[in-house]
Automatic annotation (TrEMBL):
Pfam families: CDP-OH_P_transf
Transmembrane intervals: 55-73, 113-139, 151-167, 173-190
Signal peptide: none
UniProt xrefs under Gene3D superfamilies: 1.20.120.1760
Organism in which the protein naturally occurs: Hyphococcus aureus
Domain of life where this protein originates: Bacteria
Keywords of this entry: Membrane, Transmembrane, Transmembrane helix
Protein's UniProt name: CDP-alcohol phosphatidyltransferase family protein
Amino acid sequence: MPTIYDLKPKFQALLRPFCMRLADAGVTANQVTLIASGLSLAHGAAHIMNPGAKWVLILLPIILFIRMALNAIDGMLAREFGQASKLGAILNELTDVISDAALYLPFAFIPGLPAPLVVVAVLLGVIAEMTGVIGVQIGASRRYDGPFGKSDRAFFFGALAILLIIFDPGRWSTVLIAFACALSAATIVNRSRLALKEVQNANS
């Protein structure tokens, strides 16, 4: 199923010249990974201290875009400039879920939003990423299947932030977050199913 993640190769092509300059300057993939995570944690802290503040909500789509760019850059530095490492692989997976939690859990503090549902949405996102990693454990590839991968979640919460600037929370926001939960659940099932299918095909 197509997801925003499918646009990653084109996005990487745009970033490649900048990535080359970073590599020439001695910047490492792990440094970029940690910077992206630190940026997410800082925004999350600001959001918790100022729940629903318009300036925080306006910043979120910008932070998400920068994070997406940094994530693409750290991957290119690792693969294309010989910086891949076991530590980098661990950091990449851990900081992704930590950053997601930092950026999205503060929505639970916004008055009028269904806090339990927000928490469920974030937890399902974490489980979806864990499911993708489990694919490697059973002999498949790291699964990035949709319909609601990391990039899709970022788009969703970025759009939700913009909508909350324009409209007060209400039934519409509850329905949207419930829909995000359903898409995450579908992603967990899809990644599990396709990982098993990949292993079966490899053994047949």
